[in-house]
Design brief:
The structure is a single chain. The protein has 408 residues and is mainly α. The protein has one domain: Up-down Bundle (Growth Hormone, Chain: A). It is built from 19 helices and no strands. The radius of gyration is 20 Å and the shape is globular. The N terminus and C terminus are likely disordered.
């Protein structure tokens, strides 16, 4: 439970319900984002196109999502969190439902593109909002809920989407997500007063560039954003190609691959708040390097071609490495922006999604040398990052004093 000092005069039970609602909406957004890739063979057959063409629906969503987070963060600093978050929720609901009307591969790709543009104002601003509602030493737990919801959405979206599609059809998956999101958004409106002030902050081009410069010139900021990028490259690179890994090495079908990958979201879904609470209590000094090392070792274990059950456990450990790092980086980011929290978090999510895209491309490029070589290279770089993190994050102890807010 949040401390009574989290927000003066606000019912703590109401604040907890808000965190749960934001986590639920985050789950739904990531669920629909990750349910598309496993459906590529089914969609290719229905629309009569190649898997490569319909596969464009994945980056068509991810790339605009990552880029537009920068602008949503700035707009929320200018117009207020509440307006931008609610507008983005409406866009997500409408566009997700309209995706079900696609009659061709090209239409589906276009709907995914505009949905990525519309949906990307919810999760980053929810993360920034946590930074405003909770003191720094208490943000780990609520951030853990949100990142746990992301992990759960990724895991269950990747698995349940392909499992349910034969029974309800892929169109009903989009309609169902839109419907549930609409219901939860209606409940969220009851807590609209907690979604940030409508007070506007003056933004100028010089102020915007000064804000980005100060975020990256600050040693704490530069280190954090660099690790967000490096860590996302590692995890996306390995995870993106795990389906092919299990197909080639264990000859698993679609459902078998989905079940083998299900563990990737379990640690964050179950342990996210506990990891966040540990960060609040003991700081991020040791948790971040340990998380990086766990991810490196999990990927390295796959080189040995263990029995499929142990390989699935290694996938779960890989997820634990992610859950012990990216949420903790986000906690640091919430302390960097001052009144420009939207800008700081927008840059964080932009960096995260840029890493997701680069990781998939880089691992695929190295994959020509074989899975063993690619996994060894990525694991070695991640392990080196873990060693560097011991020094770079040594000041991230419990109760760390927040740095001077970004000016400009």
């Amino acid at each position: 439970m949040a401390s009574e000092q989290a927000i003066d005069g606000i019912d703590l039970h109401r604040l907890e319900r808000l965190v749960w609602l934001l986590a639920g909406l985050t789950f739904l957004i990531f669920f629909q984002a990750y349910m598309v890739a496993p459906l590529i063979p089914r969609l290719a057959g229905e629309f009569g196109v190649s898997g490569e063409k319909i596969g464009l629906a994945v980056p068509a969503y991810m790339v605009p999502y990552g880029i537009s987070t920068l602008f949503y963060g700035l707009l929320s600093d200018r117009l207020g969190r509440r307006r931008i978050m609610l507008a983005s929720l409406v866009a997500f609901i409408v566009l997700t439902a309209l995706t079900a009307t696609a009659s061709s591969a090209s239409e589906l790709i276009v709907w995914r593109l505009v949905t990525g543009l519309g949906a990307s104002g919810v999760v980053p601003l929810a993360l920034a909002l946590i930074g405003e509602l909770f003191p720094y030493e208490q943000r780990g737990r609520p951030l853990g809920w949100l990142f746990g919801a992301m992990a759960g959405g990724m895991a269950f979206g990747s698995t349940l989407g392909v499992v349910l599609a034969p029974f309800v059809g892929w169109r009903m998956l989009f309609v169902g997500v839109a419907g549930v999101t609409a219901v939860m958004s209606g409940i969220l409106l009851r807590h609209a007063a907690l979604l940030g002030s409508q007070t506007a902050h003056l933004l100028t081009f010089s102020g915007i560039f000064a804000g980005f410069r100060n975020l990256l010139q600050n040693k704490r900021g530069a280190s954090t954003y660099a690790f967000v990028l490096l860590n996302s490259i590692f995890h996306s690179g390995v995870f993106t190609w795990l389906g092919l890994y299990f197909a080639q090495r264990y000859h698993l079908g679609d459902v078998g691959i989905g079940l083998a990958l299900l563990g990737y979201g379990v640690p964050g879904f179950l342990l996210g708040p506990l990891i966040g609470r540990a960060a609040d209590r003991w700081g991020r000094r040791w948790l971040v390097p340990i998380g990086l090392a766990i991810g490196a070792c999990a990927a390295a274990a796959l080189i040995l071609h263990p029995p499929v059950a142990l390989a699935a456990i290694a996938v779960t450990a890989l997820s634990l490495g992610y859950d012990m790092t990216q949420p903790l980086f986000a906690g640091i980011v919430t302390a960097l922006g001052g009144q420009r929290g939207g800008q700081a978090m927008g840059l964080n999510v932009f960096t995260l999604f840029t890493g997701f895209g680069l990781g998939s491309l880089l691992f695929g490029a190295v994959l020509g040398l074989g899975f063993g070589t690619a996994l060894a290279l990525f694991s070695a770089i991640e392990l080196l990052a873990a060693l560097l993190a011991v020094s770079l994050f040594r000041d991230e102890v419990s109760g760390t004093v927040q740095p001077r807010p970004v000016s400009g």
